[in-house]
C-alpha cells in the first residue's frame, strides 16, 4: 500500500457528490443591507484585539452582490454540490419574528441559481453568526435561544424546503460552545466554564428542535437531514495518553454524538465535569427532543492533536491548535491534560497534515454510528503567492487534497459509507479571528479588487470531478 497517501487514478462511484463549501459571514458582506441585523461576529470583530488587524466581515468577498458571477464560477469548475450557510440575522434581524422577505429572496436566488446550473444545494442553518440580540439575552447559554432556532428553522423549511437537497442544522457546535464561550477566541468571546457546558446542551437542543421544525415544514420528498461535527482527533505519546484521549473524546465528541445519535450524555462526561455543573439545565424530555433520526452525518476534518496527562512538572504545553486564549476549550480537563506540539508538515494555520488519522476517523465513525458520512469541510490554508497574472501555483494545496481524498477512498475501501466531499473552501475568505490573513480557497480573491481567479488547485479539482478519479 502507498503509505504516503498520494494516490492517483483512484476512482469514485457515480453517486459520490464532489463540491465545495463556504459560510455566510465569511463571504457574503452586505452586513447592514436589506434588513440584516448584527451578528455576534459583527460585534466580536470590533472588539480591540479580537481579530487580527481589526478585520471584519462587513465586505468579505462581497458574495451578496456577486452571486450570479460566483454561481457561474461554480459551474465552470464542474461542482456537483455547494454547501452554503444561511445568515440567521439576514432572516430575522433580532432572531425572532417573521422572516425578512429580502433575506429570504437572496437565498431563493442562490438555491434557484444552483439548480439552474445543475448543482445540488446543501444548506447549513447555523455557521456561527448568531443574531446579537439573542446573545444580549444569554446567547447559547440561554434555553430560549434553542427555541428561537426552532422557529428560524421552520421559516427556512417553508422558504426553501421544496428545493434544498440536504439540510444541516449546526456547523461545528464544538467551536460555537468551546471556542466561543470557553476559550473566548471566537464570538462572543466569553471565558466561562459553566457557560461553555450550558452552550453545549442548548446547541444540542437547537439541533433537535431544528430537525423537527424542518420535518414539519419541508416539502421536498427525497430530502436528507444532518448535522456537521468536527471530531477532535487526539493521538497519544505515552502510557498516560489513553486517559487524556478519553477525556478529549468525551468533551469534544461524545458531548454531541451522545445526545444527537444515542439520546444520552455519556456518564464519564458528566463525571469529568461534575466540579463545574450538575447538568441540571438538561430538563426532562430534552434528550428525546435532541435524539432525532438523521440521514447523513457531516464531518469536518483538518488536523490532529498529541496529548498526555500532565505530570505537574514545568510549564504545561497547551498546543491544542487554537492559539493562545484567556480561557479554556477543555472545561473539566484543562489542568490535567497536556497538548504537545504536533509533528510536521503543517499548514499555514499551524495544523499538522495527517491523512492517516482522517482515514481512521471515517472508519471509526462508520463503525460507531452506522450513518452515511459526508465530508462537509476539508482543505488547507497556505501562504499563496499570485504572479503578475494572478495565477497561484498552489502545489502544496493540491498535495494536501490528494492525500486526503486518498484517505477518503481508503476509508470507503474499508467499508465506510461516504457519500460526498466538499472542499473547504470555494474561495479565500474571512478566516474568523485570523481575519483575511489565511487563504483556504481553491479560488483566489484579490481583496483590493475582489476579483476571483481559480488557483491551480481549482483546475486540479475540476479535472478530478470530470474524471471521477484522483488525477495523476
Automatic annotation (TrEMBL):
Gene3D superfamilies: Glycosidases. It catalyses: Hydrolysis of terminal, non-reducing beta-D-glucosyl residues with release of beta-D-glucose. Its EC number is 3.2.1.21. The active site is at residues 172, 377. GO terms for biological process: cellulose catabolic process. GO terms for cellular component: cytosol. It comes from the Bacteria. The keyword Hydrolase applies. The keyword Hydrolase applies. Transmembrane segments: none annotated. Substrate binds at residues 26, 127, 171, 302, 424, 431-432. Keywords: Carbohydrate metabolism, Cellulose degradation, Glycosidase, Hydrolase, Polysaccharide degradation. GO terms for molecular function: beta-glucosidase activity. This is Beta-glucosidase. The lineage of its organism: Bacteria, Bacillati, Actinomycetota, Actinomycetes, Micrococcales.
